[in-house]
C-alpha cells in the first residue's frame, strides 16, 4: 500500500474515500475523513481571497510530487491548491498574495484548526504558495481532535 509524503494512504481516482467540497465555482476532492477540516480551511481561505478559477479542482490528483518519485499529498486527497494561476509553484515565497492576506493566513494557521495544516509557502526548497496540506499523519489526528474536527 503506497503512502503520500505526509503518511496518508494513496487512493485511486474512483475511490469512495474521496468526497467533493464546493467553494464558489470551484471544487476540491479530498479524503472523506478530513472533510470537516478542509471545509473549514476552504471557507476561511475564501474569506481571504475568493477562489475564482471556475471549474478548478485543486484537490486530489493521482500523481507523484513534481520532479520526484514520491507520492504527492494530492494523491492521498490530503492537499489542495488555491487559485493556482495566481500563486504559481516555484515563485517567490508569497507569490500573488498581498501582505494583508499573508498576515491573515499566518493568523489562520496559528489557530487550533490551522495547526492541522502546512502551507507550501513554507517549503524548504521550491516555494508553493497555492498549496495547503494536512500535517503528518502522526500528528494530524491529535491536532484534529483538539481543533474539534474529529
How do the helices and strands line up, and which of them pair or pack?
Elements: E1 18-23, E2 26-31, H1 35-48, E3 79-81, H2 99-109, E4 117-119, E5 131-134, H3 137-147
Measured distance between first and last alpha carbons: 25 Å
Major sheet characteristics: 3 strands, antiparallel
How much of the sequence lies in strands comes to 5-15%
CATH architecture: 2-Layer Sandwich
Number of strands: 5
Instruction: Write down the secondary-structure element order.
Output: EEHEHEEH
Based on CA atoms alone, the radius of gyration comes out at: 14 Å
Low-pLDDT sequence parts: none
Shape: globular
Question: Helical residue percent?
Answer: 10-25%
| Derived structural class | alpha+beta
Q: What is the number of domains?
A: 1
Give the count of helical stretches.
Answer: 3
Which CATH top level class fits? Alpha Beta
CATH topology descriptor: Muramoyl-pentapeptide Carboxypeptidase, domain 2
Round the mean pLDDT to the nearest integer and report it.
93
Name the strands of the widest sheet in spatial order: 3-5-4
Amino acid at each position: 500500500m503506497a503512502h503520500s509524503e505526509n503518511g496518508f494512504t494513496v487512493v485511486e481516482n474512483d475511490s469512495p474515500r474521496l468526497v467533493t467540497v464546493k467553494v464558489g465555482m470551484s471544487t476540491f476532492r479530498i479524503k472523506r475523513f478530513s472533510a470537516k477540516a478542509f471545509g473549514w480551511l476552504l471557507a476561511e481561505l475564501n474569506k481571504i481571497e475568493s477562489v475564482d478559477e471556475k471549474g478548478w479542482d485543486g484537490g486530489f490528483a493521482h500523481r507523484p510530487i513534481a520532479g520526484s518519485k514520491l507520492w504527492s499529498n494530492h494523491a492521498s486527497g490530503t492537499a489542495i491548491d488555491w487559485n493556482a494561476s495566481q500563486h504559481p509553484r516555484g515563485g517567490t515565497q508569497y507569490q500573488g498574495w498581498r501582505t494583508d492576506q499573508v498576515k491573515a493566513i499566518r493568523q489562520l494557521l496559528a489557530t487550533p484548526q490551522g495547526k492541522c495544516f502546512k502551507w507550501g509557502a513554507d517549503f524548504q526548497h521550491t516555494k508553493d504558495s497555492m498549496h495547503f496540506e494536512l500535517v503528518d499523519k502522526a500528528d494530524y489526528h491529535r491536532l484534529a481532535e483538539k481543533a474539534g474536527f474529529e
